[in-house]
Write a structure and sequence with these properties.
Layout (H helix, E strand, L loop, with lengths): L14 H20 L3 E2 L5 E3 H4 L13 E3 L5 H6 L4 H4 E5 L4 H11 L7 E10 L11 E10 L4 H17 L6 E6 H11 L6 H8 L2 H15 L4 H11 L12 H7 L6 H18 L6 E3 L13 E6 L8 E5 L5 H4 L5 E6 L1 H7 L10 E6 L5 H13 L3 E6 L4 H10 L4 E5 L11 E2 L2
Helix pairs in contact: 1-6, 6-12, 9-10
């Protein structure tokens, strides 16, 4: 007998869960639109060649590919060693690759600086485990066509605004710049050809610590003087005084020799975000070893953190080289992706106080026409309404209704006037 469970790594959502997800999505959409972003939609599938063009990083390995139509058994056997011959389409594994294709396709109809919202499911052939799913929703905002720090400032302020609107106080954004990382590795003495591999190891710093990073680099045969310089920097004595985001914080976290223009770029972003939020201590924190594994980042990178969890709630950065691959010319681009599945778990399930949700519990002898009239009355008052027939287990009925997000109930007898029905709170 076939299983009745969803496919591994995928989920069903009960009504209360679905309602909570939609409330969170509504807040995200509202705040992003308030900041001047426009929502677009792209197909769930893209061409195989595009999904595997080397711009998706390790995610390309996790793509669900679609078998070419019309292949018979012999053709499948002949192409068994060539995935490109077997597949011509694939499910999108993120929203950045579709956005790049979308912009290349529709550029003539878009403004010179295009601010996009994408909220949609993506699919990855992950190994299912707690917190990792094969289907999940991404919430992305991107700005294409603006090479200035203004784009980063707009993304950061909009994303912090979302956190505020969801009631997630205390959130911060860790920020760095790939140019600062590259300059820092140059100061330590790592050769150009070795830096990509070194960054892969440094990206593990939060998990393995300084000792683990140094040990792995030495185990890989990295240049010893460069490793020793990195080790000395990681283990240097540091004072514990608090510094707000700005030049002093950034300079303290970096070795001498990082170019002034990179530091000034980050400082300027912080000053603008602080001005937008009316704060002297902006919720940005410079992290010189923030890497973000995607190789297509070319400048500013950032991750969204919250004190209630140890993992990031989103992130992004500047990827000026990606869209140019479709157009044959440079197009500046920068994006921010909120980890919706992680954020929605932090948001309370309380019903919107502005919207009543009423269960009408009717006696068996109430005529159908009266029930329809009562429901129409409460709907016209702006309420969400469910009709239920009274059962022997009234307590169980009320508990189930409360679990589904209903906030009040009224009992209905034959001949009652709608305006006279008394609603009482659930729970």
């Amino acid at each position: 007998m076939p299983s009745v469970n969803p496919p591994r790594g995928m989920r069903d959502f009960l009504p209360a869960d679905k309602a909570r997800r939609e409330r969170v999505l509504a807040v995200i959409r509202d705040r992003y639109r308030a900041h001047g972003f426009d929502e677009i939609e792209t197909p769930v599938v893209e061409d195989y060649e595009r999904l595997h063009a080397g711009i998706g990083g390790d995610n390309e390995k996790l793509a669900f590919n679609v078998l070419r139509r019309g292949l018979d058994a012999d053709a499948i056997r002949d192409a068994a060693g060539d995935p490109a011959a077997l597949s011509d389409l694939g499910l999108r594994y993120d929203l950045t690759v579709p956005l790049a294709r979308f912009y290349a396709t529709n550029r003539a109809q878009l403004p010179s600086v295009f601010r996009a919202i994408q909220i949609a499911p993506v699919w990855r052939a992950e190994r299912p485990q707690k917190g990792r799913y094969r289907q999940f929703v991404q919430c992305d905002i991107d700005i294409i066509g603006d090479a200035t720090p203004r784009a980063e400032v707009e993304l950061l302020t909009a994303s912090l605004d979302v956190l505020d609107a969801l009631g997630l106080e205390g959130g911060t954004i860790r920020i760095n710049d790939r140019r600062a990382l590259d300059a820092m590795l140059a100061v330590f003495g790592f050769a150009d050809a070795d830096r990509a591999g070194v960054l892969i190891t440094i990206d593990k710093l939060d998990k393995v610590g300084a000792e683990g990073v140094v040990a792995e680099l030495r185990g890989r045969g990295a240049d010893e003087p460069a490793v020793a310089a990195l080790e000395a920097f990681l283990t240097r004595p540091q004072t514990r005084e608090y510094l707000p985001f700005g030049e002093a914080q950034i300079r303290k976290a970096l070795p001498a020799g990082v170019p002034d223009d990179v530091v000034a770029h980050l400082v300027g972003i912080g000053e603008a975000v602080a001005a937008a939020r009316g704060e002297t201590d902006v919720p940005l924190r410079f992290d010189p070893f923030l890497v973000r594994g995607m190789g297509y980042y070319t400048g500013t990178i950032y991750e969204l953190a919250h004190p209630s969890v140890s993992y990031s709630l989103g992130g992004g950065g500047r990827y000026d080289g990606m869209i140019g691959r479709f157009l044959g010319q440079d197009v500046p681009a920068v994006g921010f992706s909120i980890g919706f599945e992680r954020i929605v778990d932090l948001v309370g399930a309380a019903e919107d106080a502005a919207s009543a949700a009423v269960v009408l519990i009717a006696d068996r002898d109430v005529p159908l026409a009266e029930l329809a009239t009562h429901k129409a009355f409460f709907v016209s008052q702006g309420a969400r309404v469910r009709l239920e027939q009274r059962t022997k287990n009234l307590k169980g009925l009320l508990e189930r209704s409360a679990a589904d997000g209903y906030t009040s109930f009224a009992t209905v007898s034959a001949g009652a006037e709608s305006s006279a029905l008394e609603t009482r709170p659930l729970g």
